[in-house]
Amino acid sequence: MRLLTLLLTALLLLLPGCTPLLERSYSSVTPHRPFSDEEENPSILRAETYQGLVSALLYLVGQGKEEGVIRLYQYTSLTGSAASDVDAACLEVTQEDPLGAYASDYIRYDVEQSVAYYEVRVSLAYTKSAEEIRSVISVTGSSAIAQELLTLLPERPEKVAFRISYFTDSDSIESIRQSVEQVCQEQQAPLAGVEVRLYPETGQQRLVELLLNWVSETEEEALPLP
What pTM value is reported for the model? Predict the structure, then answer.
């Protein structure tokens, strides 16, 4: 009887359409985004946490949007009210985040509460154009600025912006200026001067804006040969 049972089990495993008894199951895990588009309207963003709210605002800034709608679902306030959280998030984006401090002028907002969610309508004003926002170059540290600048020297850009993800204590306006002047000198690029601006002025993450003043072609022709 035992032998018959084993034979039947083996036969079932070999038959097409039958799932092996020892086949292992698996699961798929999808990373959670702090905010997401509403399925029925992609122009409406969705958030459930304060950080998700900040991320949604930064998304709008990164896209250069002048208006936006964010819905807060199952939201627990950090400050006691959704309106206070929105106010704090707008200040964080415009004053503490590198891109926000660089590009945004101010954010106006209006908060309405419904049964299912808070709806946040924002209007954004900028000090930079959408093209300037899209042109920001992301690098790990300030030491990468000189290397990135090498590829841009032939075009002689008047303005270049770098988002630095790790700004060290040794980094400063003067050290960055010296690095830029050195690479221009080594490449014989006729730089007349450079202004370095930091956004924000403090913090581990910052945006470095270079305003480059190049020697004109007439002035360059008058320069002595090296």
Answer: 0.77
